[in-house]
Design goal:
- The chain has helices at about 1-15, 20-25, 35-50, 55-70, 75-90, 100-110, 115-130, 135-145, 150-170.
- With about 170 residues, it is mostly helical.
- Helix 7 (about 115-130) runs antiparallel to helix 8 (about 135-145).
- The longest helix is centred in the N-terminal third of the chain and has 20 residues, at about 35-50.
- It starts with a helix and ends with a helix.
Length: about 170
């Protein structure tokens, strides 16, 4: 309500060109204008944070997620790839779950029809966290839909359900 209106007004005042027309063109179906403003404003905020600290791996993960939610999968994949490179060279804070970054990149690669890259990234996510429910789910989908391997798919889906039911959940 009021908070959203304040947020939208501040965003409109900060950016001289009203970007709503472009946002509507690229928005997921059914997304309202206030949701579009929020997603784009959060992207801008994330980009500012990301530009200040290029070695902070969680920034790459969050920026890639926002870009993918905004239907900019190509840019999301580039950001996630840079995040993986930073993680592999610099590491990440102890609280950061790097499996999520590898999984995100794997899913983005799958959407780009880069199946081998998707398998490699989701596999890395599973090496980092074998009980990761989303990683098991996506490896099951890749095994079933792309690799036509029903027995592997079944094993991954069962692992996903096992850990999903343990309270971790699948996004």
């Amino acid at each position: 309500g009021d908070l959203m209106g304040l947020f939208v007004n501040r965003y409109e005042n900060h950016y001289a060109v009203n970007p709503l027309r472009e946002y509507r063109r690229t928005a997921p179906p059914g997304m309202r204008d206030d949701q579009l403003y929020l997603v784009r404003a959060l992207e801008r905020t994330g980009e500012a944070i990301y530009k200040k600290d290029k070695k902070y791996v969680p920034n790459y993960y969050h920026m890639a997620r926002w870009k993918s939610l905004g239907r900019d999968e190509g840019k999301a994949r580039q950001i996630a790839e840079r995040g993986v490179a930073v993680y592999e060279n610099e590491g990440a804070p102890k609280y950061f779950q790097a499996a999520g970054l590898y999984l995100l990149l794997g899913v983005l690669n799958l959407q780009a029809k880069k199946v081998n890259d998707a398998v490699a990234r989701v596999s890395t996510a599973l090496e980092l966290d074998p009980e990761h429910p989303q990683a098991n789910y996506w490896m099951g989908r890749i095994s079933l839909e792309q690799l036509d391997n029903l027995s592997n798919a079944n094993a991954y889906f069962n692992r996903a359900l096992l850990h999903w039911n343990s309270g971790e959940g699948v996004e």
